[in-house]
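Notes taken during the Thursday session

The instructor put the following on the board and asked us to keep it in front of us for the whole hour. The protein is P450-derived glycosyltransferase activator. We were told not to look anything up and to reason only from what is written here. First, the residues (95 in total):
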Amino acid sequence: AAGDQVVVLVEGANHDPATTPDPRAFSLERDDRAHVTFDGLPGRLVAPVVRALATEAVRALIGGRPAPEPAGEPVRHMRSPVTGAVARYPLVAAA
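Then, after some discussion, the predicted structure tokens were revealed:
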């Protein structure tokens, strides 16, 4: 109705298993062309730069070694009604 507030849960859209296989898995190889957060002209301009920077940062951190593996469940303690962001995700270096 007129004047009602609407909360858009963008994270929920980005985790739709109908459009993203295994949406909770971390993957640098995932093809996320339909990513809701980077939609529209600004997103199309910025998304490739953000992805390239993030990918290179992870590659630099692991330095040619195998990717780290989960060492437990993600800890979700973000105090926000609109995001279930991960506060901490324990990892262990792969052998």
